[in-house]
Amino acid sequence: MRKKSPWIYVPFWIVISFLTLFPIYWLFVISVKPAVDLFTTPDILLTSFYWDNYTEVLNDRLLRSYMVNSLIISSGNAVLCTTLGFFACYALSRFNMSGKESIFFWTITNRMAPPAVFLLPLFLLMTQVYRFGDFTLLDTRIGMILVYCTFNLPFAIWTLRPTVDGIPRELDEAAYVDGASPWKVITEVVFPLCRPGLAVTLILTWVFAWNEYLLAATLTNFNARTLTTGLSEYVTTTGTEWGIMAAISIFTLIPALIVFGMVQKHIVAGLTFGAVKG
Q1: Dihedral sign (CA 210, 165, 169, 192)
Q2: Is 172 found in the same domain as 45?
Q3: Is the pTM value of this prediction over 0.90?
Q4: Might you report a single GO cellular component term (predicted)?
């Protein structure tokens, strides 16, 4: 059916693309308009560009520090979750442990709970339990990286397990016969074959950490505030700076698009790897 009449699907995908891209386009329209024009009759077509909103964002030292915090926290969390998730999936796949299916299900339950449930326990852990003299994990980049592991690490394990399970154990056995050590089997046999799945896990956990707002707004004050929490600073009692907020939102989209573009060739392969086993 698809080969005989491919044009049937064209209108459908046009509608889907329009519904997906129009909010982003409208966000850009708001970001290039002065505040006065935002409360007049909406104009979908752009006739002029007001770049002062972007200039104010770029000149704001606090927003630049928030963006650096977001990049460090998101990247650190993505690398940590992907690395730990890979080794956890390798252990679940290769070792004959009793109750490993229960362990796998237990890790997923952390992802099922809403983040608001963990706010109070995480706050108490960061301020009282994990306290080293005058140093606490509250409002630190390291603390936020570890906090995001609570939700992203179970997701990484869930995403990577089909990938690791799809690699035949015979490859491991052949490497052992050739004299390879367990570490070499992991790094030179299993790891290279898992690259598509690792790329997908890395990008998804990075995006989840980059877009997160609730935990960052609650567990950070100044030193580790992220770019998403910076939006709330433009909602004041005297009014809301819609143009500046839209410009910040555009800036939050750019790094995600760059990361997606870097690993896009691995996304489809990683999502389907291990789906069919012979």
Answers
A1: negative
A2: no
A3: no
A4: plasma membrane
